[in-house]
Amino acid sequence: MTDSGKPRSAVQPGVLSVLAMLAVWTVASQLTERPQTLPAPWQVLDRIGHLMATGELWFNAGMTLMRVGASFALAMAVGLAIGLLMGRSRTVDDWLNPGLIIFLNVPALVVIVLCYIWIGLNETAAIFAVALNKIPVVAVMIREGARALRPDLDEMARAFRMSTISRLRHVVLPQLAPQIAASARAGISLIWKIVLVVEFLGRSNGVGFKIHLLFSSFDVTGVLAWALAFVGVMLAIDLFVLRPWERRANRWRQDAA
Amino acid sequence: MQLELEGKQFGPREVLGRISLSVAKGERLAILGPSGIGKSTLLRILAGLDPKFRGRLDAGDRLALVFQEPVLLPWRDALANITLPTGCDRLTALDWLGQVGLAGHENKFPRQLSLGQQRRLALARAFAAGPDILLADEPFASLDPETRERMLALTDALLTRTGAGLVLVTHDPDEAAALKARTLRLQGNPAVLQND
After folding, report:
1. pLDDT attached to residue A3
2. Contact predicate B122/B140, CB 8 Å
3. Most A CBs within 10 Å: which of B50, B67, B69, B75, as the mutation test of the A interface?
């Protein structure tokens, strides 16, 4: 909080470390005997430029983002509901906990394969499979927050006979904001990685599908171009959507100016 | 509001005994007693927050509660802290903020208010609910003497203006006197009400 007045000191090492990674990459690409296994950064950049120009990047990144968005929303909504119920009721917790632990430990790949087999090679199966992987993680984080809800506020809400919806929105959810933000942040980066696997295995568009094609032809430049371009998109979402939202939600914590 | 209490237990321990209590709109009652005797428990039963007792509660009246602590929503500003719990409109809320001397503070978050201001906000919230009877649980404890004096005078004035009744739980007879409340004493084991 106190160092927010001088972001300079945080930016500079960040920039330097990225530059250092680029330097290592450049040197390695020049030393390798087979340039196609590790292309130079500018070759990858060139490819990204090409993908942007042809519009291919926007279409496939858009499809991937749509899947990320849909499964993210589904996972957050269901995970929040389950976590809240488990945190509030001892009985529900006792009944659902074993299932939660099992689901936490089932490999993502197994869930994806089973969803494709049981539901079919379609969009529903893809989104459902990704959400299923994420729901237990959200539920566990929300449950911790729900266990620590303030009883005095709960009592106040009951004493004033606030409606269930209003209580959820103004009393319960704001208390869970730190857990919601943390699971959203952790969730979005986990989800987009799983979405790529889902696309790799059973979709005919999206970044994962593209990487599948390029993998078949050992086109490392292409793989890196797609991966970096999409990392850029996700970083932009974190920076321009998630962080501003978090700042807004945390406004009340700041002291009087 | 009428309570016919036969008994209240926490586990095997009998906390409250046979208590018969009735309060009407406009009537002011103070329940005195040392801490730990069960005053808050009795108030929670009256407020309908604790349904686990033997007996009968008739609470047709509109009630509002003032707690020991202000118990505000820290993530909502002063105005929303009145409108959200009570469901009153903006203008009514602004009017109540003015009546407790918080005009101009409507956009502040609870953290930006002093403890005295937070308590006045809690008082404004309770009155904004338009109660027939105000239930208050040691609302003046842990305040410095001067602030306490002002809060007592303010509460008295607002009660008179709205004609609302009062059930005050406190350990301090002076507070009861300042609010012109009839006093009952909670004592014994299990505790019962006696005329003071």
Report:
1. 45
2. no
3. B75
